[in-house]
# Entry
Amino acid sequence: MLDKSVVPMPSTVAAQLQEPLGSPCLRLEYRALDAGHVLGLCTNYLRFPEAAAVNDAPFHSYWYDLLDAARLTVGSSDLLIEAVLADDEDLAAQLDVDLNAPLVAVQQVIRDETGRPYDFALLRFRADRFSIMARAIPPFTPGVPA
# Structure
């Protein structure tokens, strides 16, 4: 965990979460690791009241386990996945890659069962340590085996 704080919503986040610009949100920024190797840098923004539940829940390793511990469900999730470059020195350093190394960028919006968005994430993964496996079984509830 690199940061866990309440911040004013930036414009992109406010638009995705359908909130007024500057509304308070919980920002969680962390590095995803596997056996001590950096996989990615993840930044999640949660609107209130869901943010309060997440803030009080323990976060050990897996984002959906955190949502489950906070008793939040996932009604739907949209993902935008694209190739980008590590064009920022700080980002490259966080991911332990060279400047302009290829990355996989993911934008995600998680909604509750009513369609109300409550989480917006910006994820940057090392392209040399990334794979995708997807399964969609509506309705999806974290912690409930498929």
